[in-house]
Amino acid sequence: MDITPAIPAGRQVVEAYGGAGFRITRQRHDGSVLVFPVETLAWPVGSISDLTSVHLQPILDRAADIEVLLLGCGASIAFLKPDLRALLKEQGIVVDLMDTGAACRTYNVLLAEDRRVAAALIAVD
Question: Alpha-carbon distance 119 to 103, whole Å?
Fold first, then answer.
């Protein structure tokens, strides 16, 4: 029995993570990434403590298309600076922080549910 979620063609599905990168829809991405339903972008963030509003701009530019942002913090969960959380909230984006593995899995589930989701994923070794 196939239990793979039914995800529409053309969507960005996180298939694997680790080794300082990701495999998303059959393509290898080294380093951290931003994953939107229809595109994946390189994201120059090495840790949650490095995160600034500049790093969030691609997300803010797509705010009308995002209701939930999953922030994969690396190997373990971390906290988001209050000003960055407020910036996302002002745009109507709910941010949920978790370790990167959990963020990958949750992104795929929400994508299968056709939710307006995006993932900001910090690479882990």
Answer: 7
Amino acid sitting at position 93: I
Q: Which residue has the tokens 């500049």?
A: 54
Q: Is the dihedral of CA 110, 116, 117, 118 positive or negative?
A: positive
Q: Hey, what are 87's tokens?
A: 């910036």
Q: Which tokens hold the place of 68?
A: 């939930």
DSSP the chain: --------TT---EEEEETTEEEETTEEEES-EEEETTEEEE---SSGGG--HHHHHHHHTTGGG-SEEEEE-SSS-----HHHHHHHHHTT-EEEEE-HHHHHHHHHHHHHTT--EEEEE----
Domain limits of the chain?
31-121
Contact predicate 12/25, CB 8 Å? yes
pLDDT of 55-92, one tens digit each? 999 999 999 999 999 999 999 999 999 999 999 999 99
Q: Does CATH place domain 31-121 in 3.30.930.10?
A: no
